[in-house]
Design brief:
Layout: E1 24-28, E2 34-43, E3 48-55, E4 57-60, H1 61-72, E5 91-94, H2 100-121, E6 131-135, H3 144-151, E7 159-164, H4 169-178, H5 190-194, E8 199-205, H6 208-211, H7 217-222, E9 226-232, E10 238-247, E11 255-257, E12 274-278, E13 283-288, E14 299-301, H8 304-332, E15 342-345, H9 350-362, H10 383-391, E16 400-407, E17 411-419
Parallel strand pairs: 6-7, 6-8, 7-13, 15-16
Antiparallel strand pairs: 1-2, 2-3, 3-9, 4-5, 8-9, 10-17, 11-14, 12-13, 16-17
Helix pairs in contact: 2-3, 8-9
Length: about 425
């Protein structure tokens, strides 16, 4: 495998995710019927499996434009159109107009089906699941994780954790499930609680529901629906090596995002922007403060150069810190020759990831950073999990994998793990 960041070379490039031969397709009876597709991947050699998918109608880069014009009720100017192919995206999935009730019904059904399929492909039973940790940028209901877990038959006693850190959500969830150093004073140590237990970790993002209401042309063209969930046993399938979380308030609102979840909206200098709360259904919420749009719209972006400045500089530093910790650990345990097999990075867009990779190379840090989500668009917290599942067949027991999450706020969760088997 090359050490260069690369785009997909699959013969499916340019077609819908629904056209992949491995995808199972269903119609969810909401509205006039919503297409739902999912693909399961299980690798017996590592004992890791999961499911990813999307819902809605598939739009390629050309058919997306009329859809956006119907949303904003005007024609897009030529200078408003993004070169999406160069940004690594060729198709994505969006919904028709639905009522709030239909959105709730749809996303609960999608979430429950994703959980059920993830449990099934791992050969587990719903009654065996002891934790569900999901990244969700804009939950359709405050108790979304509890609702879908219940519908999937997961015990009420299982810990449910909702992580709202925008695109970093699923990696924040994974870090919490693996890294015992993340628990603060008087907080539940989630990693210690879930060690050796069967858990589900991922991201479910019904972005089409609220993205269609923004008037930000970049956001309208980049984001879409997607979900990915893996089943793991911390300490067995995934063995934590090193990791770090980092937060830095987006002072200028370069990527301003509305908080569709409970948060005090208070910012206290010197204190974490993360608020942790519990509910009566054995659930926890990890909610990150966002710089919200001034007009109360769902999202406002400063443009592609702003995104690069926001995520690349700090992102490179966080990855470098974790990589240096990883190298130190390998020397300590007597395997200095061991290297990272791959980095699974959030798929914000291909240019951001390519520039990040080049900056790391300038620092002497080399590992593959494959681009794997051309047929999804930016699906925020779901992207790392989908990318990992697509890369999973190429991985083997004992491989070390770097997970690189980052998102609005801004938040970063980066960790190295060893795959079991």
């Amino acid at each position: 495998m090359s050490n260069e960041t690369y785009k997909e070379t699959s013969t499916d490039k340019g077609t819908s995710f629904f056209d992949r031969p491995e995808v199972k397709k269903e119609i969810i009876p909401v509205g006039e019927g919503i297409s739902f597709g999912f693909e399961g991947i299980y690798e017996s050699k590592t004992g890791i499996g999961g499911v990813y998918g999307s819902w809605g109608k598939s739009y390629d880069n050309e058919s997306l434009i009329p859809l956006i014009e119907s949303w904003v009720e005007r024609s897009l100017q030529e200078d408003e159109r993004m070169n999406l192919d160069d940004l690594g995206f060729v198709s994505r999935h969006h919904l028709p107009t639905l009522s709030d009730t239909d959105h709730l019904t749809l996303e609960v059904e999608v979430g429950a089906r994703i959980l059920k399929e993830a449990i099934k492909i791992n050969g587990w039973k719903p009654s065996e699941i002891e934790g569900v940790l999901l990244g969700i940028s804009g939950p359709v209901a405050d108790d979304y994780v509890v609702k879908i877990s219940r519908l999937a038959g997961i015990p009420e006693s299982a810990l449910k954790v909702s992580v709202h850190k925008a695109c970093d959500g699923s990696m924040g969830a994974l870090n919490l499930s693996l890294n015992p150093r993340l628990a603060g004073p008087n907080q539940v140590n989630i990693a210690r609680e879930l060690y050796g237990k069967k858990i589900l970790v991922g991201g479910i993002e019904g972005l089409s529901r609220f993205i269609s209401k923004t008037r930000d042309m970049n956001a309208l063209q980049l984001f879409a629906n997607g979900a990915g969930v893996i089943g793991i046993v911390p300490g067995e399938a995934f063995k934590f090596l090193v990791g770090k979380d980092y937060e830095s308030y987006d002072e200028d609102g370069v990527l301003a995002v509305h908080m569709f979840y409970p948060h005090s909206r208070e910012r206290n200098p010197g204190k974490s922007m993360i608020e942790i709360s519990k509910d009566i259904d054995n659930g926890m919420r990890v909610a990150g403060l966002m710089h919200e749009p001034a007009d109360n719209s769902p999202i406002a972006m400063a443009g592609m150069m702003g995104m690069v400045k926001l995520f690349v500089r700090t992102g490179v530093q966080v990855v470098s810190d974790v990589y240096n910790s990883y190298q130190a650990l390998m020397h300590k345990v007597g395997t200095p020759e061991k290297s990272l097999a791959v980095a699974i990075s959030h798929h914000a867009n291909f240019k951001i990831n390519s520039l990040k990779h080049k900056q790391l190379q300038k620092l002497g840090i080399n590992f593959p950073m494959p681009w794997l989500l051309s047929d999804f668009g930016n699906v925020c917290a779901a992207s790392n999990i989908i990318a990992f599942l697509r890369q999973l067949p190429l991985l083997k027991p004992g491989d070390h994998v770097l997970f690189d999450g980052f998102g609005a706020g801004t938040y970063y969760d980066v960790m190295a793990v060893e795959l079991g088997g």
